[in-house]
Amino acid sequence: QVQLVESGGGLVQAGGSLRLSCAASGRGNAMGWFRQAPGKEREFVGAISWNGGYTAYADSVKGRFTISRDNAKNTVYLQMNSLKTEDTAVYYCAASGLRVGVFRDTGFYDYWGQGTQVTVSS
């Protein structure tokens, strides 16, 4: 069983930055970030392979968000720059049972954090 704890969410003005962290209790497998806005389905944001060698991003955040990890600390990060009001959502960290690859589909992830709220004001 892997436990995931997100932190770093909050309220920020449009154009600002936030860094989310996800502390994992288990070993480093492929990880991902997803988000869910009110009334919408959970959507993929970014993913990273077990060693950080491969990353993937949703088109809506490419060039603005960066996913990284520090396996010595069992922590994955999501650096969010140039935030827009449409980035407002609850952000979830997820861990896959797989080590190799990056995954955009929620079905590849076995463990989820409780979520952290990100609110971007205009």
Question: If you had to describe this structure to a student in words, what would you say it looks like?
Answer:
It is a single chain. With 122 residues, this protein is an all-beta fold. Helices cover 0% and strands 49% of the residues. The chain is built from no helices and eleven strands. Strands 2, 4, 5, 6, 9, 10 and 11 form a seven-stranded mixed sheet that branches. Strands 1-3-8-7 form a four-stranded antiparallel sheet, with no helix packed on it. β5 (43-48) and β6 (55-57) form a beta hairpin. The radius of gyration is 13 Å and the shape is globular. The termini are far apart. The model has no long low-confidence stretch (mean pLDDT 95).
